[in-house]
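Q: What residues go here?
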């Protein structure tokens, strides 16, 4: 499963995160250990300059301006 972590205005997209998914409603549940690892990786990337596998550019628009 793909997970998007956001802190302030910075994002980290993490692929292949293990999760449980409700068969009825589709709600996704992530284990605390996985979320803690994602948070640590985010901090290492943005504050310790850890290299990522790849980077992407994402266009951003304000709704009121479209």
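A:
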């Amino acid at each position: 499963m793909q997970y998007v972590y956001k802190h302030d205005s910075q994002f980290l997209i993490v692929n292949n995160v293990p999760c449980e998914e409700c068969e009825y409603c589709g709600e996704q549940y992530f284990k605390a250990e996985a979320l803690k690892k994602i948070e640590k990786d985010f901090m290492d990337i943005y504050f310790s300059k850890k290299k990522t596998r790849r980077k992407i550019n994402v266009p951003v628009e304000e709704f009121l301006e479209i």
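A: Context that may help when evaluating the design: The chain has one domain: 3-49. The chain has a mean pLDDT of 91.
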